[in-house]
Amino acid sequence: MAEIISARVIVTCPGRNFVTLRIETRAGVYGLGDATLNGRELAVASYLNDHVIPCLIGRDAHRIEDIWQYLYKGAYWRRGPVTMSAIGAVDMALWDIKGKMAGLPVYQLLGGASREGCMVYGHANGADIEETIEAAIAHVEQGYKAVRLQSGVPGLAATYGVAKAGERYEPADGALPTESLWSTEKYMRSVAPLFEKAREALGWDVHLLHDVHHRLTPIEAGRLGRELEPYRPFWVEDPTPAENQAAFRLIRQHTNVPLAVGEVFNSIWDAKQLIEEQLIDYVRTTIVHAGGITHIRRIAALADLYQVRTGCHGATDLSPVTMAAALHFGLSVPNFGIQELMPHTELTNTVFPHAYSYRHGMMHPGDAPGLGIEIDEELAAKYEYTRAFLPVARLEDGTMFNW
Ligand code: CS2
Ligand code: MG
After folding, report:
1. Which one of 58, 119, 173, 391 has the lowest number of neighbouring Cβ atoms within 10 Å?
2. Atom of ligand 1 nearest to the CA of 39
3. Is the CB of 41 under 6 A from ligand 1?
4. Average pLDDT of the chain?
């Protein structure tokens, strides 16, 4: 019995907000879980403080599955990003505790390593094609085997995935949502030229990815996919909003480019049809937002039946705790595809010391017991929560659209 005696939520903002759950056991072993939901951080903090932590006290931290079921079925109001991020945080912390008590890194508890490391992809973005390709070349020089390309769109002042001049890309950029204009026509004219120039500059030995970020209709996505086929993208991500999973049948009828979906999913039910009908090639659900290691293993096991691979979300708005857990999961899961890597800032890495490492386009979780992640609470306390919203997008006629 590893009795849970207390737990607390740590909210910090070393350049951007992170929410971390720390669970303490009577044996003095503690575990950490990420509970960060970009733009809605305090909702998850409250869900944990007001509705989860009181129910954890006195429970056996070893009973990971039972606690997962208790928090999922016991909520009555199942699923949703806030609930599943809270469950994800508890789950990560319990796996951290179990690993520490066993003296093993979590990947060893998940079946051991299935590969030497996790291939990652980096983000190359720029105001125009030339800048984006320069950034992609820099990533290849750092050893990346896979690079995501996101370029500014001629005629649009701002677009998803492109940093403001001279800044790191951070989407949550305002105390109220900033608004940007979107034009599908202008965007659609810009992507194939980007990939054509990228292949000319980078050749064929590097994987190239692109994130449409939910902004096309299915038939537009089919057209874009068809235009990109000659450039062999590793994947085209979030081509269309995925509430209607059947919509992807239309995309599949028109293009063979690999599709990646799921960073906004929070349970297996969001991806079930996409996986079972092989409408996607990579499932992007991430450990923090999809109920932790326990649930993401179920999603990956279903995906494996249909030759769908993992491609976990790994933006900077997921804390280093999620990155640590994702690498333990990614090192072990049989149908691993790729792991997103947007490196955190030095300050964030100082707040969250960790055992994971990057080398030659691959990452490894390290062999520290548990998840191999810490939080420097004294340093974290210096950076108070700062409300920040994700942007919203409107069409040029003012119609609300998908950001
Ligand atoms: C993006 C994310 O990394 C990605 O693929 O879709 O950066 C996403 O925009 C952010 O995580 C939203 O907080
Ligand atoms: Mg994305």
Report:
1. 58
2. 13
3. no
4. 98
Residue 166 has pLDDT above 90, yes or no: no
Q: Report which secondary-structure segment, H or E, holds 340.
A: strand 339-340
Give CA–CA dist 218/214, Å, rounded.
Answer: 10
> In 196-294, which ranges are E strands?
207-211, 235-237, 259-261, 282-283
Atom number in ligand 1 closest to CA 148: 5
Number of residues that this document lists for the chain: 403
Rounded Cα gap, residues 358 and 369, in angstroms: 19
- What span, in angstroms and rounded, lies between the C-alpha atoms of 89 and 86? 5
Give the class (CATH, top level) of 109-367.
alpha beta
Cα(196)–Cα(230) distance, integer angstroms: 8
Q: How far is CA 168 from CA 39, 123, 125, in A?
A: 18, 11, 10
Assess if CATH 3.30.390.10 describes domain 4-105: yes
- Can you tell me whether residue 307 is helix, strand or coil? coil
Residue in 263, 287, 319, 322 to alter for ligand 1 test, most ligand atoms within 8 A of Cβ: 263
Determine the average pLDDT of the residues in 36-64.
98
Rounded Cα gap, residues 266 and 89, in angstroms: 13
pLDDT tens per residue, range 87-129: 999 999 999 999 999 999 999 999 999 999 999 999 999 999 9
State how far the Cα of 30 lies from the Cα of 356, in Å rounded to an integer: 19
DSSP state of 344: P
Q: Is the per-residue pLDDT at 244 higher than 90?
A: yes
pLDDT digits (tens, 9 = 90+) for 285-336: 999 999 999 999 999 999 999 999 999 999 999 999 999 999 999 999 999 9
pLDDT at 167 over 90: no
Distance CA 109, CA 204 (A): 37
**Is 328 among the catalytic positions?**
no
Task: Confirm whether 160 is a catalytic residue.
Answer: yes
Q: What is the pLDDT of residue 208?
A: 99
Atom of ligand 1 nearest to the CA of 340: 3
**C-alpha distances in Å from residue 390, one per residue of 37, 331, 393:** 11, 31, 10
User: Is the shortest distance between the CB of 262 and ligand 1 below 6 Å?
Assistant: no
Local structure of residue 301 (DSSP, 8 states)? H
Q: Is 167 exposed, middle or buried (0-12, 13-18, 19+ CB in 10 A)?
A: exposed
Which of 47, 160, 282, 383 is catalytic? The answer is 160
Which residues 6+ apart lie within 8 Å of 54 measured at CB? none
